[in-house]
Amino acid sequence: MNKQQEFVLRTLEERDIRFVRLWFTDVLGFLKSVAVAPAELEQAFDEGIGFDGSAIEGFARVYESDMIAKPDPATFQVLPWRAEAPGTARMFCDILMPDGSPSFADPRYVLKRALAKASDLGFTFYTHPEIEFFLL
Predict the structure, then answer these.
(1) Nearest of 104, 90, 110, 108 to residue 44 by alpha carbon
(2) What is the CATH classification number for the domain harbouring 100?
(3) Does the residue 28 lie in any domain?
(4) What count of other Cβ atoms lies within 10 Å of the Cβ of residue 30?
(5) In the predicted model, what is the mean pLDDT of residues 103-118?
(6) What's the total number of domains in the chain?
(7) Which residues in 58-97 are b (16+ Cβ under 10 Å) and which e?
(8) Residue 68 pLDDT greater than 90, yes or no
(9) Which residues lie below 8 Å from residue 111, measured CB to CB, with a gap of 6+?
């Protein structure tokens, strides 16, 4: 277990977190979520959480539907709107095939591949969120 995973597990215990939401998006950018108890997270770090990929838009056909959501501990965050004990946290996931290879339908994997190609060409990619709102 790496230090980031240890930090996540320690924080869950210290902050009395009851649920961890494992987030990923489909190919259209819609957020999907699986909630797990903290006791399940150590196994999720090692093996991931299995799910039916054919139920997610653009992920897989029915006959190749087994997929794995593997949490990325670097994306761990206690949700601020649920900060009262017992709270809720979230982590984004990488989507893998049953053999452990990345899914080509995973938007995170698509971005990682694009960043690697840009880096090979000597480019550095910088990004920043732009927060907007409207008052009506």
Answers:
(1) 90
(2) 3.10.20.70
(3) yes
(4) 10
(5) 92
(6) 1
(7) ebbeeeeeebbbbbbbebbeeeeebeeeebbbbbbbbbbb
(8) yes
(9) none
